[in-house]
Every structure is written in C-alpha cells, then in structure tokens.
Design brief:
Length: 198
C-alpha cells in the first residue's frame, strides 16, 4: 500500500511539474520568440539569443528594452574583459612588446566601457514613444558611442597582430575581447532595429 501511495504521489508531482512547464513555456514563448526573431537580424544570431533569451520576460517584445538589454550585456562583458586583460600585465614570460599591447588594450577597453555606459544612459534617457528631432539626436549619440566602443575593441585586438605576438597570451586575450566585440556588434544591430521602428 505504501509503495502504491508513493508511486501515485510521484506521478502526481511529475504531472504537476509538466503542466507548470507547459504553462511557463506558453507564457514566455512569445517573448522568447521575439528575442530569437530579433537576434536573426544581427551578425552573430546564436550568440545574441544565448546572451539575451534569459531576459525575454523582462524585454516583453519591446525593441527599446531589447536594445537596452543588449547594451547592458555588452557593457558587463566589456568591464569583465578589461579586468581580465589588466590582470595579464603580470603574465608569466610576457615580453616588452606584449606588455605594451596589453597596456594599450586595457586603455582601449576602458574607453569601450565608457562609451557603452554613455550609450546605455542615453538610450534610457529617451522617453517611451518619443520621436522627432530629440529622438534622432539621442539615437545618433547611441549609435556613435556604440560604434566607437566596437572600434576600441577591434583596436585592442589589432595590437596583438603579427606572428611575433602569437602564443597563449594573445589567444587568451583574443577570446575575451572577441566575445565583447561580437556582443557589441549585436547590440548595435538591435539599436538599429529599434531606430528603424520610428
């Protein structure tokens, strides 16, 4: 009798969990689908969806919120990458040229962080439903700063060009900065999608 009760209880809990999962899936599927469809417009759609899908319920099919979230993700990654690269100044066996490239990269990433912060602040400054000259002025600033941040990230990578720079240090830094640059590129694409809706 105890085994039958246990089996029935397990079946009840399983059925309840499946029903809850279906309800949650239905509740958020439109929001998640919006993020997925929007990410298809970016250069790195899989990375975009991976980075932003967990925020779908907060984004709620709002292009502006999607652009803000993409910028916030890029800013967070840029901060982390700057810290990571900064720690590489003490990398074992670092050459003078590599050290100079790392120092330059830290500076570039600092600029990138600042520009992404400005972009996010400016985008948040827009009033919901705002249009007209003020809207386009704000959007121009957001696009310019985000593009400049992407340039900073690319410039960091350029500092490690050439065979003399090849090695583990370059690979480690490249992996982190490339991810930030891809996120920033996606954010810029989503900013453009938001702007195109006005």
């Amino acid at each position: 009798m105890a085994k039958l009760s246990l089996i029935l209880f397990v079946l009840y809990v399983s059925a309840s969990a499946i029903a809850m999962a279906r309800n949650l899936g239905e509740e958020y599927s439109d929001d998640t689908q919006f993020v997925k469809a929007s990410c298809e417009t970016t250069t790195y759609p899989e990375l975009c969806f991976q980075s932003l899908s967990s925020y779908a319920s907060e984004i709620k099919k709002r292009p502006r919120q999607l652009a803000e979230t993409a910028l916030a993700v890029s800013l967070s990654r840029a901060k982390a990458a700057k810290t990571y690269v900064s720690d590489m100044t003490d990398y074992k066996g670092i050459t003078k040229r590599q050290h100079e490239a790392v120092v330059d990269c830290v500076e570039e990433m600092g600029d990138s962080v600042d520009r992404l912060r400005y972009s996010l602040k400016e985008l948040k400054h827009l009033e919901e439903g705002e249009s007209g000259q003020d809207f386009w002025l704000c959007m121009g600033n957001v696009r310019t700063w985000t593009s400049a941040a992407l340039t900073d990230e690319t410039t960091c990578l350029d500092g490690f060009g050439g065979k003399a720079m090849n090695g583990e240090l370059k690979s480690l830094i490249r992996e982190h900065i490339l991810r930030v640059a891809q996120d920033t590129s996606n954010a810029l694409a989503l900013i453009n999608v938001f702007a195109s809706k006005h």
